[in-house]
Specification:
single chain, alpha+beta, 4-stranded antiparallel beta sheet, 3-stranded antiparallel beta sheet, 2 helices
């Protein structure tokens, strides 16, 4: 059969450089195939020490900021709670004192001898009094006797006074009692502590 391809028997001449190039590529392919087949293929990747330190520093700063924000929020909520408790105690004590003095038939003596005690007679003529007991960390407002508390154990009365005053001669005004009480929460200290001061004036009956 006649050969239709005149160049089929042609041999391309290969010099030494081409042979070396082909051999090197064949060797690379062989090594790659072996590493893939045996699992001995290692990728060179990772983070430098400086990168790790930078990331740790950033996360540390974020953690500090978040922790401070939570701490401030909790401290504010705690202070608000204690302030409300102290105000409720003082409001109750003032309400009791005002009601008793409005109905009192007499405050004697007036002016009173001690600003921490106010003696009076109720509408039935019975003698009673209000007093500031143990003013300080364990202070409280008492009614009738030292055992009847008008403020709770969770509140410390740090300042307290009942001052009865009579009007000056020629002044048409009934006697009055100035009440000043300062108290704070007894269960908290520092920035969470709450101190509240309340003042009022009660005008007495003249009949």
């Amino acid at each position: 059969m006649k050969n239709n391809f005149p160049f089929s028997n042609f041999h391309f001449p290969m010099n030494s450089q081409i042979i070396k190039f082909i051999n090197s590529k064949a060797k690379l392919v062989t090594q790659t195939h072996w590493r893939l087949a045996t699992g001995d293929w290692k990728f060179q990747c990772g983070f430098s020490l400086i990168e790790i330190l930078v990331v740790l520093a950033v996360f540390s700063i974020l953690a500090i900021v978040v922790a401070q924000g939570i701490f401030v929020t909790l401290r504010g909520a705690r202070k608000s709670e204690t302030t409300t408790r102290v105000k409720e105690n003082l409001a109750y004590a003032i309400a009791v004192v005002e009601r008793q003095l409005h109905n009192a038939s007499e405050v004697t003596p007036c002016p009173n001898t001690s600003p921490t005690r106010l003696d009076f007679k109720d509408e039935d003529g019975k003698t009673s009094y209000f007093s500031c007991q143990s003013v300080g960390p364990a202070g409280y407002v008492a009614s009738g006797s030292a055992t009847i508390r008008l403020t709770s154990d969770n509140v410390s009365v740090t300042a307290c006074s009942f001052v009865c005053a009579t009007p000056a001669p020629g002044v048409d005004s009934p006697p009055s009692v100035d009440i000043n009480i300062t108290a704070q929460d007894a269960t908290t200290v520092g920035a969470e502590g709450a101190q509240v001061t309340t003042s009022t004036k009660v005008f007495l009956r003249t009949y």
